[in-house]
Design brief:
Rossmann fold, 327 residues, alpha/beta, single chain, four-stranded antiparallel β-sheet, 2 domains
Length: 327
């Protein structure tokens, strides 16, 4: 019998507002993440990636949010039915977050060491010592950690700030680390260092990682599997190598074609026309069809289901066979 996954989201539905004003922002979302596995969650801004991640520890403000269907099973227990005390146990204790824009996530008036020690007091009070703070900073590759812990966020570079956030997330020894756009606004050299750091931490600590990004280059370097989101729905899921080699959904293919490539010369990048639809203004039928280069007339009338097109691969396009590229 296959082991139970660390995280399994099934048919998750989230709305904002009530009655006629209710807007469905997550619609039947599902994903699965095993212990020690890295899952890349990919999509444009507004696709629902961060909301999905926040739902794991029920961090979506309710109200205005309201979970109207589905389950979020974390270590075999449904997060959507947990009590306040149970939620406090898993937040940090089981799942920790590294949010984007580290400069905004850190407190500007508290020293770095104080902020990390606060995380230790909440989850491992016996370890809330300066020595443990130094160890965590050294673990994430912070230079001169004994000096940095006495500094403030504004005295650090963007890469160093991100390392501090990762150290705070690791203070509770979580089983799942959610990294939400961890390389946003960092230059390419620092991006590579952060990705390498996450890879090393995963191997050393054995934790699972949910990597949220719009950058397929990062996913290819780190993720075991990839799930692609569009307009509040999952549209494709597959092992990373299979998806990068032969995407089955037109949206996934369009995202990959828009990635810059070495040796591309001066060719213009391929852009996806239009934009992600506004919440509450999703088109009928397939939500991607207004932007899809291979859409057919029926795509505007019938909403496709997420289908298993081969073992371990799922796609929300009924034309996933070879004619999808040239239809």
């Amino acid at each position: 019998m296959a082991p139970k996954p660390l995280l399994e989201i099934r048919d998750l539905e989230l709305e904002f507002g009530r009655g006629r004003d209710a807007v469905r922002v997550l619609d039947g979302v599902g994903l699965r993440l095993g212990a020690g596995e890295t899952l890349g969650l990919v999509g444009e801004s507004g696709s629902g990636k961060t909301l999905t991640a926040l739902a794991i520890a029920r961090l979506v403000p309710c109200p205005p949010g309201r979970f109207v269907g589905g389950t979020v099973m974390l270590e075999g227990v449904d997060v959507l039915r947990m009590t306040g005390a149970e939620l406090r146990r898993i937040r940090g204790g089981v799942v920790s977050y590294v949010f984007q824009e580290p400069g905004a996530a850190l407190n500007p008036v508290l020293r770095i060491g104080v902020q990390i020690r606060e995380a230790l007091r909440l989850h491992r009070p016996e370890a809330a010592t300066e020595a443990e703070v130094v160890r965590l900073l050294r673990l994430v590759g912070m230079p001169a950690p004994e000096e940095r812990l006495r500094g403030y966020a504004h005295e650090l570079s963007g890469g160093m700030q991100q390392r501090v956030l990762i150290a705070m997330a690791l203070a509770s020894q979580p089983r799942l680390l959610v990294a939400d756009e961890p390389t946003t606004a960092l230059d390419v050299t620092i991006q590579a260092q952060i990705i390498e750091l996450l890879r090393e931490l995963k191997e050393r600590l054995g934790m699972a990682i949910l990597l949220i990004t719009h950058n397929f280059g990062i996913v290819g370097d780190l993720a075991d599997r990839v799930a692609v989101m569009y307009a509040g729905q999952m549209v494709e899921s597959a092992p990373t190598r299979s998806l990068l080699r032969a995407p089955r959904h037109p949206y996934t293919r369009a995202l990959l074609e828009s990635v810059p490539r070495l040796g591309g010369g001066g060719d213009r990048l391929v852009a996806i026309p239009g934009s992600v639809p506004r919440l509450g203004a999703f088109p009928a039928g397939c939500r991607f069809h207004p932007r899809c280069p291979v859409a057919r007339a029926e795509c505007a009338r019938q909403a496709p289901a997420l289908m298993e097109v081969e073992p371990g691969r799922w796609s929300r396009c009924p034309y996933h066979e070879g004619d999808a590229r040239g239809a």
